Amino acid sequence: MPWDQSVYFLTGLADASFIFNKQKFDYCIVDEASQITLPACLGPLRYADRFVLVGDHYQLPPLVRNVEAMNGGLDVSLFRKLSEEHPSAMTILEHQYRMNEDIMLLSNILVYDGLLKCGSEDVAKRSLQIPNRGQLALAKPWVRDVLSERYKVVFCDTDRVPALETKRGDRTTNEMEGSFIKQVGQLETGCLTDRSSTRFAKAGYRPLRSE
């Protein structure tokens, strides 16, 4: 890596690199800082005069599997710790471009005290577009309701199915709900091949961690 570059991109765990041992930086910007353990986050901060942490501690915390470490507070990120102890130093990024206004509404009311805003009117009014809706005629009524253009948010109650959860180690899975996602995914993508829809279903319901 050439030394005349003013910006370096690397992971927090790479702070032992020879680059850091020979240079001092003006700023260290840590993205997704709320998902990084405090020790891992502190590493690169040692080599900068100032730092900026970017994250959201209302979302996923650092992944800590060891129970003793979790009980000791390792799942509390530096981002969360500083934001709670020094709220005056925190700046809230209010505008988001990921969700339309209906999807945003629930988390905005329950978590963010109404602070979130859609970045544009186009984002706020965005809705699901299915180019080949003729295939919906093959679907069950509940699938047609889920994929209806009338709704931007749909809550599917699976209690009466029943769709029971299964514990596998420290993970919780729900095979029945996964099969529902598979059925929706098959029609949404317009591809009824089992191979591609299975990949979609796994991406949709397979848990990355216990939540």
Q: How would you explain this protein's 3D organization?
A:
The protein has 211 residues and is α/β, with parallel strands linked by helices. The chain folds into two domains: 12-91, Rossmann fold (3-Layer(aba) Sandwich); 133-205, no CATH class. Helices cover 34% and strands 10% of the residues. The protein contains nine helices and six strands, in the order αβαβααβαβααββαα. It has helices at 18-22, 38-45, 67-71, 78-85, 101-110, 121-124, 141-146, 175-188, 194-205, and strands at residues 25-30, 48-53, 95-96, 117-118, 166-168, 171-173. The protein has a two-stranded parallel ribbon with strand order 1-2. Helix 8 packs across helix 9 (194-205). The longest helix is centred in the C-terminal third of the chain and has 14 residues, at 175-188. It is extended. The model is unreliable at 191-211 (pLDDT under 50).
